[in-house]
Amino acid sequence: MNSKHFVSALMLVAQGVLAGAADAAVTALVGGTVVDLGGGPALEDAVVLVDGDRISAIGARGTVDIPAEAERVDAAGKWLVPGLMNMHVHLGLVLPGKMAAELAGETDAALALRMAAAAREILQAGVTTIRTPGDTRHAELALDRSIRKGESQGPRIHAAGEALVITGGHGSEPGVLYADGPDELTKAARQQISLGAKWVKILISGGIATDGGAIAEALMTPEEINAVVDAAHRFGAKVAAHSGSSAATSVAVDAGIDSVEHGYTLDRKVLRKMHKAGTWLVPTIVVSQPATAPFFERIGSPQWYLDRRNSVGKLHWEALKTAIEEDVNIALGTDQLPHEPNDGTTATVREAEYYVEAGMTPLDALRAATIEPARMLGADDESGSLAVGKYADIVALRADPLADIGALRTINFVMKGGIVYRNDDAR
Ligand SMILES: [Zn+2]
């Protein structure tokens, strides 16, 4: 093929792609109730028109023209909310005990396949966006690319690459690349960003899953935390800090950290500081509460791990209640796979229910699972609510989530980017 023919061939390919985009499916969800995340009255008997991967119109039936070629989905008797967002997910999660033993020596290929399987389940559970604050061997970055190409099914992934671990700190395990001091941590942060991470994850206090370093102690120095935040922000990346400690969190807030994960023992003073600074809290409350006890039994957790978990349960609950009282920005995260079974539902839904039990209104809990994470990610211009121009990431429920957040247990339809991945009522 000479170069002229080659160019023509390329143009044909390009035209084909464009034609494909122009012919992209139009879908109309008809007759559902669109929940208002602003707290206003719901839009009943609505039409949500989806053109390609975006919402192109929303209105009462009769006010939206439905093109003849549109595929109609009957949404009568359903409440429509944005796809759920879970901000603390480790796709390659391995916890101590039987689970770790079974997955010892897992190859890169096996890991990627395990992650891909989890991603499909996550989408089926109605979670259309996740953040992965520290995952394994960068397989989640490859999976993200594969999902965006349409090769794999899964949620939108906002990845942090691998967490930055200080020697002896939380996350210590064989094979981890340690980084100590401002210079090493700066380099490690830049490495994650260069591989495609949009977030950097640091572990500034002890945690549950590593038997080393007290949960309430500040293990990273202020100089180290400042160095990572500065390095990440210069590249437009955000920083998430695993922290169970008020002292460590206070330093991180001063450094301009974007989100604090877990917050197991945070006191009112530091939560007020977070509120003032606009720092996000991702509670992952489900990991320390009774709903997850059967999960930890199932994965054969050793006693030291269960003891560490039980030791923080009450404090963690108090910290969450206080954070809600102090109006701290809260974005939902579970630290379990989003679809992990909990109390007859998923970890994601159980987490939202716990928020209501700890003092949130159902509206605020729904927001914490949708628009608030979108704001934290800086992605609220394209996701997190049902609005014209945003991604058509939509789930349908059989009950009103503003009357009872437990309505999230009735997810029966999942659309992401205009593609229907689940419709329990379809024949
Ligand atoms: Zn975690």
TrEMBL record:
Pfam families: Amidohydro_1. Residues 1-24 form the signal peptide. Keywords: Signal. Gene3D superfamilies: Metal-dependent hydrolases, Urease, subunit C, domain 1. It comes from the Bacteria. GO terms for molecular function: hydrolase activity, acting on carbon-nitrogen (but not peptide) bonds. This is Xaa-Pro dipeptidase family enzyme.
